[in-house]
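EI: anyone free to look at a 113-residue chain?
SC: sure, send it
EI:
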Amino acid sequence: MASVFTKILRGEIHGEILYQDDLCAAIRDIQPQAPVHVLIFPKKEIRSVAQASAGDQEILGRLLLVAAQVARDLGISERGYRLVVNTGSDGGQTVSHLHVHLLAGRAMGLPLA
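SC: here you go
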């Protein structure tokens, strides 16, 4: 079964696509946790970082480069942003398709919990 992210890319469900290339895509989160909340994910359906393999190295690196590009495109790179990858249910992962959260538009504090 296709993930919600794959369904958005196929046009089966609505989503605001901000970026797309042959390896990954970026969409706005529909339940933002910050003024700017973007999800960057591989087009290949990798369930989580825990399921990524050595063969996914290019995709994993591309996710971070795309996050930086999206931040520049949105004009938030100068002030800063946070990148988060949740893995598994205890890690807060709610969609079983690897994705990077790009959060910005306010000061980010610690701890994360």
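EI: The chain has one domain: 4-104.
SC: 👍
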